[in-house]
């Protein structure tokens, strides 16, 4: 079973070229040949095209930026639904292969890759923006997974919905890094990651990590008004984890979904508030 529970002492206490990244990961397949029959080499190209077709002197060389946004509409055939893209196997959720032409007749799922995981995150806050607010975190790896998380934010944290969503994202990425390091350390190929997709219904988190963060970093973590970026310490830590994974050739993507497609993480976040 992919990503089964780590030994207790390893349980968490609380880019280069990604071309053909699917083909580098292990296929969990009833028909491996079919799975890769239609995987184009650019299906997961992560580098934005900053080139210009205009004539005249060449502009200064600009370092290419990594596109961290997950774009299923660009990668999968139009008939793939969000449920088709996410293949639930054991205690984790894996990405379906874009080249899969048909579902398994037994499990009704497309071919998937064990190194490409989806982690759903969410935050909740009782009395958000009011005195006495309490916020909580939900992280969903898979059905009854020991990696799932549901807990209240520390009283030392700002008790807001946005902070809870950022902490959930950070927690999920710490989990992913632990999984990958475990696979590397013990030479377990199907636990080494190629792609980590963070699924969130928070536009704030997804746009922050895919659109705004490079501008903030360039501006010294100041926003367009010249003021310090709100919650910058969380974005700073998340960005550091993402970069550490990218250095290990693990592509990190952020997927913005409607709330109704993030029910599992939402349920975990709200469950923690029942303790209040």
Automatic annotation (TrEMBL):
<dbReference type="InterPro" id="IPR002156">
    <property type="entry name" value="RNaseH_domain"/>
</dbReference>
<keyword id="KW-0540">Nuclease</keyword>
<dbReference type="GO" id="GO:0043137">
    <property type="term" value="P:DNA replication, removal of RNA primer"/>
</dbReference>
<dbReference type="GO" id="GO:0003676">
    <property type="term" value="F:nucleic acid binding"/>
</dbReference>
<keyword id="KW-0479">Metal-binding</keyword>
<dbReference type="GO" id="GO:0046872">
    <property type="term" value="F:metal ion binding"/>
</dbReference>
<keyword id="KW-0378">Hydrolase</keyword>
<dbReference type="InterPro" id="IPR012337">
    <property type="entry name" value="RNaseH-like_sf"/>
</dbReference>
<dbReference type="Pfam" id="PF00075">
    <property type="entry name" value="RNase_H"/>
</dbReference>
<dbReference type="InterPro" id="IPR036397">
    <property type="entry name" value="RNaseH_sf"/>
</dbReference>
<feature type="domain" description="RNase H type-1">
    <location>
        <begin position="113"/>
        <end position="274"/>
    </location>
</feature>
<dbReference type="GO" id="GO:0004523">
    <property type="term" value="F:RNA-DNA hybrid ribonuclease activity"/>
</dbReference>
<keyword id="KW-0255">Endonuclease</keyword>
<dbReference type="InterPro" id="IPR050092">
    <property type="entry name" value="RNase_H"/>
</dbReference>
<comment type="similarity">
    <text>Belongs to the RNase H family.</text>
</comment>
<protein>
    <recommendedName>
        <fullName>ribonuclease H</fullName>
        <ecNumber>3.1.26.4</ecNumber>
    </recommendedName>
</protein>
<feature type="compositionally biased region" description="Polar residues">
    <location>
        <begin position="38"/>
        <end position="56"/>
    </location>
</feature>
<feature type="compositionally biased region" description="Polar residues">
    <location>
        <begin position="16"/>
        <end position="29"/>
    </location>
</feature>
<feature type="region of interest" description="Disordered">
    <location>
        <begin position="1"/>
        <end position="70"/>
    </location>
</feature>
């Amino acid at each position: 079973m992919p990503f089964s529970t780590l030994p207790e002492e390893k349980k968490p206490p609380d880019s280069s070229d990604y071309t053909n990244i699917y083909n580098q990961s292990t296929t969990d397949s009833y028909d491996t040949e079919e799975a890769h029959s239609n995987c184009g080499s650019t299906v997961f190209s992560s580098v934005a095209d900053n080139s210009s077709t205009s004539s005249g002197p060449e502009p200064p060389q600009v370092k290419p930026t990594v596109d961290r946004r997950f774009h299923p509409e660009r990668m999968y055939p139009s008939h793939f639904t969000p449920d088709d893209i996410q293949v639930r196997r054991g205690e984790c959720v894996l990405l379906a292969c874009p080249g899969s032409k048909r579902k398994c007749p037994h499990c009704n799922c497309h071919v998937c890759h064990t190194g490409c995981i989806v982690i759903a995150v969410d935050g909740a806050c009782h009395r958000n923006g009011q005195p006495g607010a309490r916020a909580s975190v939900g992280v969903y790896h898979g059905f009854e997974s020991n990696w799932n998380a549901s807990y209240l934010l520390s009283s030392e944290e700002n008790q807001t919905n946005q902070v809870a969503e950022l902490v959930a994202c950070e927690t999920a990425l710490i989990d992913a890094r632990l999984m990958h390091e475990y696979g590397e350390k013990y030479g377990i190929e199907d636990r080494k990651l190629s792609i980590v997709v963070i699924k969130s219904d928070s536009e704030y988190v997804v746009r922050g990590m895919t659109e705004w963060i490079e501008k903030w970093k360039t501006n010294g973590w100041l926003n367009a008004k010249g003021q310090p970026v709100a919650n910058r310490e969380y974005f700073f830590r998340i960005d550091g984890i993402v970069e550490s994974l990218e250095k290990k050739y693990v592509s990190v993507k952020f997927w913005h979904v409607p709330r109704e497609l993030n029910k599992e993480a939402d349920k975990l976040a709200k469950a923690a508030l029942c303790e209040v």
